[in-house]
Design goal:
By secondary structure, the chain is of the alpha/beta class. 60% of the residues lie in helices and 6% in strands. It contains 11 helices and 7 strands. Strands 1-5-3-4-2 form a 5-stranded mixed β-sheet. The protein has a two-stranded antiparallel ribbon with strand order 6-7. Helix 4 crosses helix 5, helix 4 packs across helix 6 and helix 8 packs antiparallel against helix 9. The longest helix has 67 residues. About 3% of the residues have low confidence.
Length: 405
């Protein structure tokens, strides 16, 4: 049933996430012009909730109506469940923009985890490292509720969403945009350091200064995971090496203790024999035993010094490996920052404009345009050598700038 609903009584779809996928002001402005030209058109669906109407989709149109000064608009009010509201929202938006896909994927998985919607069962042959358990986006992370699991894969999620989320050529397979969205949400859930949100924005720039597509985001997620795996492997190897050195220390200490006990026992036996020889007034035997005691004492002293050196060397080795492990951990933690630095340096070092500038310089530009281009180049050079360079000033030796001919 179509009803005229006051715009003040309209609420967003409860699954709509304007923080993650904000309203596009340029679209709203275009819709305002359309409303002024042709009036507000029908096609917005919603449901009655108390004294308000929640719209399933059409948030840009409603905002445009508000901006155009309309007091009420026609809405097709229907009996819609939460599942209906989610499905209508995701399937109405067929633009395939990454932020919209992330919003749809996030809402669908959370709704599945809450039992609001149902996905088809996961194929038993699905690899375990591809399985996720709603409402989590992290592969293999079980539900926090004991005995309650909601397994899903990119494919079952995509088939639930339908439309642009499923590959046409290979029916049932998830589009790269769905896989990329899951990767972004996984990184967010795990709070991975250095996973730059700017790189993942629809209008953001990647390493080449251009739009980052779904395939590149999948690569970025894979690179982050690979770095984490390598860092973990390095940490485990360092721990094993330190443990092995400590085991050597413990064995050497045990061997020293056992040898010292043997030497003590041998010394006591010799002292006992010397006493017996003295009692028998065997001076020659007493002297021989005394010489033997002195010899063994010197040998024990030399061995003790040797053991002391070995223990010191092992201790130094353990400390060196600990220090190396700490440095490696610092380096691994710094990797996300280095990736971001590499991205910016790559942008600064690009020469994509070279050929364009050469081509433009050969054209018969008038004096005004030639002046404008020169001023733009001079302004960029001044900004780079001034404000931008000042952000990284400090205990470094700035290279001399080479003038380009």
């Amino acid at each position: 049933m179509t009803k005229m609903v006051p715009v003040s009584s309209i609420k967003d779809n409860p699954f709509r996430d304007k923080k993650r996928n904000p309203i596009d002001s340029s679209r709203v402005d275009a819709l305002v012009e359309s409303i002024h030209a042709t009036d507000f058109w029908k096609g917005v669906y919603g449901r009655k909730v108390d004294d308000f109407v929640e719209i399933a989709f059409g948030h840009h149109r409603v905002d445009a109506a508000r901006k155009a000064g309309l007091k009420e608009i026609p809405i097709e009010v229907m009996d819609l469940s939460d599942s209906d509201m989610l499905m209508r929202m995701t399937r109405e938006n067929l633009r395939g923009e990454l932020l919209s896909v992330i919003e749809a994927v996030s809402a669908a998985v959370k709704a599945f985890g809450a039992g609001v919607v149902e996905f088809e069962k996961v194929d038993p042959k699905t690899r375990k490292d591809y399985l996720r358990y709603a409402p989590s986006f992290v592969p293999g992370k079980e539900s926090v509720t004991p005995g309650v699991t909601h397994p899903y894969s990119a494919e079952t999620l995509a088939r639930f969403l339908g439309g642009i989320y499923v590959k046409k050529a290979r029916e049932g397979m998830a589009q790269n945009s769905v896989v990329a969205a899951l990767g972004v949400l996984e990184m967010e859930e795990r709070k991975v350091k250095g996973f730059s949100e700017k790189v993942l924005q629809v209008n953001g720039a990647g390493p080449d200064g251009k739009y980052v597509g779904a395939k590149r985001i999948i690569e970025i997620v894979s690179e982050v995971k690979a770095s984490e795996v390598k860092a973990q492997e390095r940490a485990e190897k360092s721990a094993e090496e330190i443990a092995a050195e400590k085991a050597k220390q413990e064995k050497l200490a045990a061997d020293i203790k056992a040898r010292q006990e043997r030497e003590k026992k041998e010394c006591e036996e010799l002292l006992s024999k010397r006493v017996e020889a003295a009692a028998e007034e065997n001076a020659k035997e007493v002297q021989r035993i005394a010489d033997e005691i002195i010899r063994k004492a010197k040998a024990a002293e030399a061995k003790a010094e040797e053991d002391k050196a070995k223990l010191a060397a092992l201790e130094a080795s353990v400390e060196a490996k600990k220090a190396a492990a700490i440095e490696q951990r610092k380096e691994d933690e710094y990797l996300p920052i280095r990736r971001e630095a590499d991205r910016i340096i790559h942008i600064l070092e690009r020469r994509d404009l070279t050929e364009d500038l050469k081509a433009l310089s050969r054209k018969p530009l008038n004096l005004k345009d030639r002046q404008r281009i020169w001023e733009a180049i001079d302004g960029l050079a001044g900004w780079l050598s001034g404000w931008a360079a000042a952000q990284f000033s400090g205990p470094i030796k700035a290279p001399k700038l080479k003038r380009r001919k």
